[in-house]
C-alpha cells in the first residue's frame, strides 16, 4: 500500500491525498482547490498529479473549498466512483461548489470584458453543470458508524469539530491477511469552540495524516471576540464614520461573527449601524446550520433558551442581488460588510475591498487564516500596495485582525486530538495542511510527545506503508 500527497503539502490549501492498495484500488482523501498561491495557483489547479479516471472512490472530510473545490474538475476528467461524507457535508458541499462555479464563471466574464480584441479568453475551472454531475456521486455516512466501502475497506467518520459536518476519516484496510488502520484528521476544530462541540476521540491508528495549520501557535490569552468586534466597529463606524469590511468564509466563520454580534446585542452593546452579509451562499449556509441544532455546544444551547435565533440581530440584512451589492459601494454611510471569501481571493469581498481600501476612515478586518500569497495574507503582512483585478491599489485603510477567530485548533488542540493514541503504536505520522516552518516546529513537538516517525511530505511525494 502507498500514499501520495498531491495537495496541502507544505502549504495550507489544496488538500488531496491518494492511497493506492496493492490491487490498484485507489482511495482519494479530499479533492481541494488550491487558493491564494499567487501566479502558480492556476497551474496547481490544472494538474492533479494522478489520473482521475483510475481513482476508485473518494472520502471528503468537510465542505471547505480547499478540501472539496476541485471535485467537479476531477469528475470532468474521468472520476466515476462514489464520494463518501457526512449528510451535513453533502448539503454544504452542494451550495459551496455551485457558488464556486458561479464565482469562477463571473470572474472569467469580468476579465474577458476588460480584455482587448485578440487576447486569449479566460475560461472558468468548472461550471455549474460540472458541479451537478459531481453531486450525483455522493453517498452519506453517519458519524461513528462502521461503513463497508468494499470487503477490504471499512470507513468510520468521527466529529472533527471544525465546521458543520466536518469529520476525521478512519479507514481499516485489509490486504494479504494484514489489517492496517489509517486516520486522516481532516481539519481539527477547537476545544471550547464558540458554536460547535469539541472533536471526538478515535480508535488507535497505525498511520495518521494530520493537519498542522496552527502547529506553532496558541489561541489562548486573547481578548474576547465580542469585545474586539465592539472596539473595531465603534472606532471605525461611530468615530471615523467609515466602513468595516470583513472577509469571511461563508461556512463557519460568518456564522461565528453573527453569533458574536448577536451576543453584543443581548448585552445591549451592539453599535447602532447597518450590518450586511453580502453573500447569498452565507445565507444558505446559515440556514443549513440552523437546521442542525444538534451540533451546537452547551453554551449555544443555553443561549437558545431565551433567544430562538442566535444568528440574527437588529440592523442585519442579507444581500442577495449583484445590484444590491454594488449599491453598498455607493452608500457613504458607516456600516459593517461581511462577505466571502475568507482569504479575499474571490467573490464580492474583493470589490468591497477595492472600493474602500483607499480611505483611512475604513477598516479591513481579517478573522481567520490567510495563505501568505493570498490578498488577505498580503494585507495581514502589511503590504503597502496590493493588486486586485490586475490593478495596483495603495493600502490606506486600516488593516486589523482577530486571531482568536479560528476554526483550526492550535498546537495544544492538535495534541489533545492525538492524546487518545499510543504514540509508540503509530508507525508513521504525516503532517499536511501547514506552512513548512510551522510543520517543522510541530514535528519537533510531536517527537517530544513520543511519535517516533514524523514526515512532512513534499507535493506529489509518495510513501510506502
How would you characterize the overall build of this protein?
The chain is an alpha/beta fold. The strands form four sheets. It has a seven-stranded mixed beta sheet. The chain has two domains: 2-217 and 407-464, Metallo-beta-lactamase, Chain A (4-Layer Sandwich), CATH 3.60.15; 225-401, Rossmann fold (3-Layer(aba) Sandwich), CATH 3.40.50. It is built from 14 helices and 22 strands. The model has no long low-confidence stretch (mean pLDDT 93). It has helices at residues 41-45, 65-68, 71-76, 87-114, 128-135, 225-239, 253-266, 280-290, 298-303, 322-329, 348-356, 375-380, 411-418, 436-448, and strands spanning 2-7, 16-20, 26-29, 57-59, 83-85, 138-140, 147-150, 153-159, 167-175, 178-184, 207-211, 243-247, 274-277, 316-318, 335-339, 363-366, 385-388, 391-394, 398-401, 428-432, 454-455, 461-464.
Q: Helical segment tally?
A: 14
Report helical residue fraction: 25-40%
Shape: globular
Main sheet strand line-up: 6-5-4-3-2-1-22
Q: Do you know the CATH topology of the largest domain?
A: Metallo-beta-lactamase, Chain A
Q: What average pLDDT do the residues reach?
A: 93
Amino acid at each position: 500500500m502507498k500514499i501520495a500527497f498531491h495537495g496541502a503539502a507544505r502549504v495550507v490549501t489544496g488538500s488531496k491525498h491518494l492511497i493506492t492498495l496493492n490491487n490498484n484500488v485507489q482511495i482519494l482523501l479530499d479533492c481541494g482547490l488550491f487558493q491564494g498561491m499567487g501566479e502558480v495557483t492556476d497551474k496547481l489547479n490544472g494538474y492533479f498529479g494522478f489520473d482521475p479516471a483510475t481513482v476508485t472512490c473518494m472520502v471528503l472530510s468537510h465542505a471547505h473549498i480547499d478540501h472539496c473545490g476541485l471535485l467537479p474538475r476531477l469528475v470532468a476528467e474521468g472520476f466515476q466512483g462514489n464520494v463518501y461524507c457526512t449528510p451535513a457535508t453533502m448539503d454544504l458541499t452542494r451550495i459551496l461548489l455551485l457558488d464556486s462555479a458561479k464565482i469562477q464563471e463571473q470572474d472569467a466574464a469580468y476579465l474577458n470584458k476588460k480584455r482587448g480584441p485578440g487576447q486569449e479568453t479566460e475560461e472558468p475551472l468548472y461550471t455549474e453543470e460540472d458541479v451537478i454531475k459531481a453531486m450525483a456521486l455522493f453517498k452519506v455516512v453517519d458519524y461513528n458508524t462502521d461503513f463497508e466501502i468494499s470487503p477490504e475497506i471499512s470507513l468510520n467518520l468521527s466529529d472533527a469539530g471544525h465546521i458543520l459536518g466536518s469529520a476525521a476519516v478512519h479507514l481499516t484496510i485489509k490486504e494479504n491477511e494484514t489489517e492496517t488502520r489509517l486516520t486522516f484528521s481532516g481539519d481539527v476544530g477547537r476545544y471550547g469552540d464558540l458554536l460547535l462541540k469539541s472533536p471526538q476521540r478515535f480508535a488507535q491508528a497505525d498511520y495518521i495524516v494530520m493537519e498542522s495549520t496552527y502547529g506553532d501557535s496558541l489561541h489562548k490569552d486573547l481578548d474576547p471576540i465580542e469585545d474586539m468586534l465592539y472596539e473595531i466597529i465603534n472606532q471605525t463606524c461611530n468615530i471615523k464614520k467609515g466602513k468595516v469590511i470583513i472577509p469571511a468564509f461563508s461556512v463557519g466563520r460568518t456564522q461565528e461573527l453573527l453569533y458574536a454580534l448577536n451576543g453584543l446585542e443581548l448585552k445591549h452593546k451592539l453599535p447602532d449601524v447597518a450590518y450586511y452579509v453580502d453573500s447569498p451562499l452565507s445565507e444558505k449556509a446559515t440556514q443549513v446550520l440552523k437546521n442542525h441544532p444538534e451540533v451546537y455546544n452547551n453554551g449555544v444551547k443555553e443561549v437558545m433558551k431565551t433567544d430562538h435565533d442566535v444568528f440574527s440581530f437588529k440592523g442585519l440584512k442579507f444581500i442577495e442581488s449583484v445590484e444590491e451589492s454594488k449599491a453598498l459601494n455607493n452608500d457613504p454611510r458607516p456600516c459593517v460588510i461581511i462577505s466571502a471569501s475568507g482569504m479575499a481571493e474571490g467573490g464580492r469581498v474583493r470589490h468591497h475591498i477595492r472600493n474602500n481600501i483607499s480611505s483611512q476612515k475604513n477598516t479591513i478586518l481579517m478573522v481567520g487564516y490567510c495563505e501568505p500569497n493570498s490578498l488577505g495574507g498580503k494585507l495581514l503582512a502589511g503590504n503597502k500596495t496590493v493588486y486586485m483585478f490586475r490593478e495596483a491599489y495603495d493600502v490606506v485603510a486600516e488593516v486589523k485582525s482577530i486571531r482568536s477567530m479560528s476554526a483550526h485548533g492550535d498546537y495544544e488542540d492538535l495534541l489533545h486530538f492525538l492524546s487518545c493514541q499510543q504514540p509508540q503504536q503509530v508507525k508513521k505520522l504525516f503532517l499536511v495542511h501547514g506552512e513548512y516552518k510551522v510543520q517543522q516546529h510541530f514535528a519537533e513537538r510531536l517527537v517530544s510527545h513520543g511519535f517516533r516517525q514524523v514526515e512532512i511530505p513534499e507535493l506529489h511525494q509518495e510513501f510506502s506503508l
